[in-house]
């Protein structure tokens, strides 16, 4: 009888694998990392460590966190990093919680190493790293305009979310929340600012009123006689994580011949560019009383965009710091045509609605009198319609001084999926910013605008003595309630006075005899009569 010997070979299963993990949190906040092994509670992410094929399940493994100060497993599962935060391990669930101290500074914090040992006594390690989210950064905002003009600015335009610096505006997914802007009243230091309207005083004298809208745009309405620069008024805004940034708004009101720039709106179809002509609704400024210098005019080719690094110098007599010809935001790209002054907004693919982060533009006049040329700033606020939405087009017409003119805005507007409804046409009144227009009748310094409720036609009656360009934003909706907006622009032409020469009768002196003038007239008539007979006798 023969025999054989069988010697089995036992191959150990592969060792476990361990992966790193990160969490992002605010100072004073706690966050949990993904569970180290399967079978966790309170966590829905995949486990950080996985067993090898055929190896024991890791739910019966041993886990620990290693103290960076000793490089050994901490016996109680609690590791504190001075000035940063504390790691706490729950060995039953495999979940590590990190609690940041309230004074933790932004950036990545000291990581800890976790270790997991399976049932075969084999250990693997990886790291857990918390990061404190940087807070948003707000920068000072400046605006300037001529005496008596309402000024509008967008504080978020040069502010930054906590994602860090970039050459583009708001590139991070943690975008600011414009509707969360609040002004700081006299008794409201940051971070407790809660006002939406603040009256601005200096030495007991009221200078004007600052108001923040739900859109995040801020308007300043000056007192009629105010000229100068306001004290800096504080504002604060949050990011979507609740962190707050604080900065200031400073307004300058200039006397004539300062120009006046007005917020520009326009709309386009889905995924189409919007072309804005900022100078069309701006004013070059009036000649100061007593000056003999020619009236200034606007220089469209002087238009520049204020990028995120710009600080507008309101009183400068030389070009200010707004020098960009191209600015990017998370909503699209704005680019100035250096030849025409037009600004083209090209939306990012898929963007719809009215921009939340409008850039500021600057425009100069050509005043050659005392102080030299002056400039003004305003916002560019385009709207991109969703698919199938209507699109409105600027309406332009002319009239004579004191003569009413009728415009029919719906005539050149383009419907989307549904027909346009002319009865929905509304104008922007004082303090309203397109597309939040609600008025059927508006009186401005230029004249009176009235909407006919049935046809949507708008009648403009210039005020007595007014000449120049008048403009007003309007909106129109379609049958589905989708809205479009544009402007009405009327030029009231300054008609030249044509002199009228008074006719004077010329006669011959009376002689008492036959009148030579009558004899001459009779002779001419006789000749004409004879000529007429000859013409009548010609063959055709």
UniProtKB/TrEMBL annotation:
Cross-referenced Pfam families: Big_9, CshA_repeat
Keywords: Membrane, Secreted, Transmembrane, Transmembrane helix
Keyword Secreted set for record: yes
Keyword Signal: no
Gram-positive cocci surface proteins LPxTG domain sequence ranges: 508-540
Transmembrane segments: 518-536
Record-linked InterPro entries: CshA_fibril (IPR026395), LPXTG_anchor (IPR019931)
UniProt name for this protein: Unannotated protein
Lineage: unclassified sequences, metagenomes, ecological metagenomes
């Amino acid at each position: 009888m023969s025999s054989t010997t069988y010697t089995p070979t036992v191959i150990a299963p592969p060792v476990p694998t361990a992966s790193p993990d990160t969490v992002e949190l605010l100072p004073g906040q706690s966050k949990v990392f993904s569970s180290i092994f399967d079978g966790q509670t309170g966590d829905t992410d995949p486990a950080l460590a996985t067993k090898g094929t055929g190896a024991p399940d890791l739910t019966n493994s041993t886990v620990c966190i290693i103290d960076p100060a000793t490089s050994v497993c901490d016996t109680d599962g609690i590791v504190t990093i001075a000035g940063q935060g504390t790691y706490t391990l729950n060995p039953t669930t495999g979940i590590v919680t990190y609690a940041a101290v309230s004074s933790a500074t932004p950036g990545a914090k000291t990581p800890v190493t976790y270790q997991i040992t399976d049932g075969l006594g084999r250990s693997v390690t990886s790291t857990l790293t918390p990061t404190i989210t940087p807070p948003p950064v707000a920068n000072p905002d400046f605006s300037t305009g001529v005496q008596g003009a309402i000024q509008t600015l967008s504080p978020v335009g040069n502010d930054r979310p906590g994602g860090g610096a970039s050459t583009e505006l708001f590139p991070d997914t943690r975008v600011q929340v414009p509707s969360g802007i609040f002004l700081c009243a006299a008794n409201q230091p940051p971070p407790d600012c809660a006002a939406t309207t603040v009256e601005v005083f200096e030495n007991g004298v009221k200078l004007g009123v600052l108001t923040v809208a739900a859109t995040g745009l801020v308007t300043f309405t000056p007192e009629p006689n105010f000229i100068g620069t306001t004290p800096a008024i504080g504002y604060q805004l949050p990011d979507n994580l609740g962190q707050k940034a604080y900065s200031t708004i400073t307004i300058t009101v200039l006397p004539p011949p300062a120009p006046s720039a007005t917020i520009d709106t326009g709309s386009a179809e889905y995924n189409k560019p919007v072309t804005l002509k900022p100078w069309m609704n701006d004013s070059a400024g009036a000649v100061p009383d007593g000056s003999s210098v020619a009236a200034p005019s606007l220089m469209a080719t002087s238009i520049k965009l204020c990028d995120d690094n710009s600080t507008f110098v309101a009183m400068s007599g030389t070009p200010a710091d707004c020098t960009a010809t191209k600015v990017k935001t998370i909503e699209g790209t704005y680019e100035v045509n250096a030849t025409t002054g037009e600004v083209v907004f090209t939306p990012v693919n898929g963007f719809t609605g009215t921009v939340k982060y409008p850039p500021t533009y600057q425009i100069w006049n050509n005043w050659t009198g005392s102080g030299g040329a002056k400039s003004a700033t305003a916002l560019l606020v385009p709207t991109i319609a969703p698919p199938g939405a209507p699109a409105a087009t600027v309406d332009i017409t002319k009239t004579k001084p004191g003569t009413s003119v009728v415009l029919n805005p719906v005539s050149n507007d383009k419907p989307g999926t549904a027909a346009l409804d002319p009865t929905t046409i509304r104008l922007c009144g004082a303090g309203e910013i397109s597309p939040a227009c609600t008025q059927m009748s508006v009186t401005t310094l230029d004249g009176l605008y009235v909407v006919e409720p049935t046809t949507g036609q708008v009648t403009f009656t210039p005020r007595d003595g007014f000449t120049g360009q008048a403009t007003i934003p309007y909106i129109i909706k379609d049958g589905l309630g989708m809205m479009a907006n544009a402007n009405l622009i009327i030029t009231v032409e300054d008609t030249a006075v044509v002199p009228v020469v008074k006719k004077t009768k010329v006669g011959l002196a009376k002689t008492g005899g036959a009148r030579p003038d009558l004899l001459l007239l009779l002779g001419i008539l006789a000749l004409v009569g004879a000529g007429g007979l000859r013409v009548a006798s010609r063959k055709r």
